[in-house]
Design a protein that fits this description.
By secondary structure, the protein is an alpha+beta fold. It is built from 13 helices and 14 strands. The N and C termini lie far apart (about 80 Å).
């Protein structure tokens, strides 16, 4: 009888496949066949090493000053390490690129084309996206007031939104092998909410017509973050066998496996959930303001797209700019810059040097902490008044967040110039800002932080 020791003695690397290989080997031995040849059919493929040299990638970014030079160098350095990942084929960085994580992590503003699906390359905020609804001639303040009455920013969700995901989406959450592990209540309570960070509810007027428009920016909230966590776990189980040298954040799920098919299907469900979430906020706003939509379109800019070449294009903060990027796509996409700048309505140019993508916004040269430190001791109220002069800017939590003010971002004019310079997209219209709502520093009001502050105050007395 053949045992595991016999397989190891024959040069077979130990592994989970022994469980299925041993019965097959003994059956082959009983038939007088080459049992070792049978075992080899069960063996996993040899592990894939990293590329010795980084694959080349397209650089669609230029530096205007020393700070930008440092940012570009860091983004290119992490992209180069990423491009050593065995199953990657092509890469590109956008004008708004900036590092996000340990070296070798795909930067914000990065695009990576692969034979497989890399959860770490779409990150936790799966399907972070934009939606615009044009409402015609309307008072922008009235629309912004209506938006504030129906939207929700900050951590977690809420019990009552007035809207729910469609029955089809809810059914997919309950049947997909990956999604059904997610908390069912979260799928509903996080729906029609906008989170925190750089997400926003923006109202402005179309440069071409003067009509008022709503623009929202948010992703898949808790459900997307939980799917990301599940995906990273699945990818890690493959990484240990397929390519132990690959960085954990770049682990992949082979597309042709059952796990890959389930995860790809789950991504499409999360995409639809997010699109419906945007639409619910817009519809609730219109109902509150007594308005009707004239036009609406939407695009994700943090997702995985599969092209006709069979490859998976991971866009970490990059807007699709190729024809037919989705069955529900229009020929227009949305690129925000910062709260004081117009939101750009663009038509993609499917540039080879961009792998068919364009920027998703303005990006950052400094981390939030570094930016805040650079502001010095100036009162936040003064900074806020200066940077939002003439705009109706509101923070849902009631506490401002200076790390989301225009100075926290790259030069909007530089990003626009580089969109033209690298022929990534054509700007066809703009939404001129009236005002916007963001989460603000919502954690400032959290009980645990208030308790800490009170404790510190007592200690200083």
């Amino acid at each position: 009888m053949i045992t595991g020791k016999d397989l190891i003695a024959a040069g077979c690397p130990p592994g989970k496949y022994f469980k299925e290989a041993l019965p097959a080997a003994n059956a082959a031995l009983a038939r007088g066949e080459d049992w070792l040849a049978v075992v080899r059919d069960f063996m996993p493929p040899p592990s894939l090493p990293l590329h010795e040299e980084a694959l080349p990638f397209h650089r669609n970014i230029e530096a205007d000053d020393e700070l930008e030079e440092q940012n570009v160098a860091a983004a290119e350095r992490t992209m180069a390490e990423l491009m050593r990942t065995p199953v990657l084929k092509y890469g590109a960085v956008m004008p708004d690129a900036c590092p996000a994580g340990p070296n070798g992590t795909i930067p914000v503003g990065g695009v990576a084309a692969s034979e497989a699906i890399h959860p770490g390359m779409h990150s936790a905020d799966i399907c972070c996206s934009m939606m615009i609804t044009i409402v015609g001639v309307a008072d922008p303040r009235k629309v912004l007031d209506a938006g504030q009455s129906v939207t929700h920013f900050g951590g977690g969700g809420r019990e009552v939104t007035g809207k729910e995901p469609s029955a089809a989406v809810l059914n997919e959450f309950s049947t997909n092998r990956v999604l059904k592990r997610l908390p069912a209540q979260m799928v509903k309570s996080h729906f029609a909410t906008q989170g925190d960070g750089n997400h926003f509810f923006y109202v402005g007027q179309m440069a071409s017509t003067g009509e008022t428009a709503i623009v929202t920016h948010h992703g898949s909230r808790g459900p997307g973050a939980r799917l990301y966590k599940e995906g990273m776990g699945i990818a890690e189980s493959f990484r240990r066998t397929l390519s132990p040298e690959t960085l954990k954040q770049n682990a992949w799920i082979p597309a042709e496996t059952e796990e890959g098919e389930n995860y790809w299907a789950a991504l499409q469900t999360i995409r639809q959930w997010t699109k419906e979430s945007h639409a619910a906020i817009h519809d609730l706003t219109l109902e509150a303001a007594g308005l009707k939509p004239k036009d609406r379109f939407w695009n994700e800019h943090n997702f995985v797209f599969r092209k006709s070449d069979g490859l998976f294009y991971h866009a970490k903060g990059a807007t699709p700019a190729f024809d037919g990027w989705a069955t529900d796509a229009t020929d227009l996409t949305i690129i925000p810059l910062n709260m004081s700048e117009p939101v750009l309505i663009v038509r993609g140019k499917n540039a080879d040097n961009g792998l068919g993508f364009s920027p998703h916004g303005a990006g950052r040269n400094l981390s939030r902490t570094a930016h805040k430190r650079g502001l010095g001791d100036r009162p936040e109220a003064d900074i806020l008044a200066e940077e939002t002069n003439g705009l109706d800017v509101r923070f849902f939590s009631g506490v401002s967040d200076v790390t989301e003010l225009p100075s926290a971002y790259k030069s909007a004019s530089a990003v626009r110039r580089q969109i033209d310079r690298f022929e990534l997209a054509e700007v066809v219209d703009e939404v001129i800002p009236y005002g916007s709502i963001m989460a603000g520093d919502w954690q400032e009001t959290m009980p645990w932080r208030q308790k800490r502050k009170a404790k510190a105050a007592l200690k200083n007395d």
